[in-house]
Amino acid sequence: LAATGEKLAAEYGCLRCHTVDGTPHLGPSWKGLYGSTIPLEGGGTVVADDAYLTESMMDPPAKLHLGYPPLMPTFLGRLSGPEAAAIVEYIRSLRSTP
Fold it and tell me: Residues 52-67: pLDDT tens digits?
């Protein structure tokens, strides 16, 4: 599933703004993102879990990651549920190992 997510992330252009090696870019790097605590614009935090990552794809301005401009387009109606799940699984595969 992670391999499918990697392919979809490339096809949908996600990797134009998100890196997978920790390098800063237009959007947060996906390396180590899954399971981390994300500081939000306006205060508060959220854990980067399946629900947050899916919401971020479908409604990007709902919970903006502090320090990143609101550039991400919505993928609501563009990504199917299984496609979104595959991309989340790819992001999960890039989490930091203890």
Answer: 999 999 999 999 999 9
Which band of pLDDT confidence, cut at 50, 70 and 90, is reported for residue 24? Answer: confident
The rounded Cα 70 to chain-centroid distance in angstroms is 13
Q: Is the dihedral of CA 62, 65, 67, 68 positive or negative?
A: negative
| Alpha carbon distances (Å) from 45 to 10, 16, 41 | 28, 25, 9
Segment 42-56 mean pLDDT: 97
The secondary structure of 29-55, three-state, reads CCCCCCCCEEEECCCCEEECCHHHHHH
Q: State the Cα–Cα distance between residues 44 and 84, nearest whole angstrom.
A: 25
